[in-house]
Amino acid sequence: MSAHSVDGIGMTSRRTRQRLIDRLREKGIDHPRVLQAMADTPRHLFVDEALASRAYEDAALPIGYQQTISQPYVVARMTQSLITTVKKHTRVLEIGTGCGYQTMVLSRLVNLVYSVERIGPLQVRARDLLYDLKVRNVYLRHGDGFDGWPENGPYTGILLTAAPSQVPDALYEQLAVGGAMVLPEGDRHAQRLITITRTADGYERFEGAWVNFVPMVSGKI
Question: How far is Cα 190 from Cα 175, in angstroms, rounded to an integer?
Fold first, then answer.
């Protein structure tokens, strides 16, 4: 992939990207490494070409299969919550690869990312794009997110990009002591952004802002 396509032009240019970063900063995203990761991730490559001119709007956009690429502010906020709750992440589990945008943001901030996607064509598309972008610290799996990826756990961080009605037991079990899990939780009409930390004595839970994600669905297709 050429540097020209990564850098973008016009509405996908670095200058347009920087305006998004300025908006994120105004909304309270203040971790410098998170802001840099967002600035360095070419969101326009993760959406259909017809939507590329809207890639740096602070809005969710469709990616097919009734899924969306998350709003940049939500990506930044969840990422910031994850990496500020735990001092150093050695391995992070992502549930819901989608188009791979959140995956790439995480890859710039943690040692290893393990990402599970239930929709086969999305997983293949994300795999190919991340490979073209020379992202080499990400491992992808076509599977059921409710199962997690136990073979590579426990994880210092777990991040969900779809909303379960309640946290699957398997994900609690795969979270390392001292680790943090960030997710939207609730039904289709009411979801909260949740941060869960695991201590030696159990789990602690913090409820954050109201959000709107696609529901988490079991199985794989």
Answer: 25
| Res. 157: pLDDT tops 80 | yes
Residue 150: which domain range? 3-211
Total count of domains within the chain: 1
Of the pLDDT bands very low, low, confident and very high (cuts 50, 70, 90), residue 66 is: confident
Asked whether the predicted pLDDT for residue 7 surpasses 70, the reply is no
In a domain, 67, yes or no: yes
What is the rounded CA–CA span in Å between residue 81 and residue 159?
10
Residue 216 lies in a domain: no
Domain of residue 50, CATH code: 3.40.50.150
Output the six-digit token pair for 187. Answer: 């039904």
Pair 142, 163: CB distance under 8 Å: no
What does the pLDDT average to over 154-167?
Answer: 93
CB 23 within 8 A of CB 33: no
pTM to 2 decimal places: 0.90
Contact 209, 192 (CB under 8 A): yes
Catalytically active residues are 70
Residue 115 within any structural domain of the chain: yes
CA angle 191–148–206, rounded 5-degree value: 35
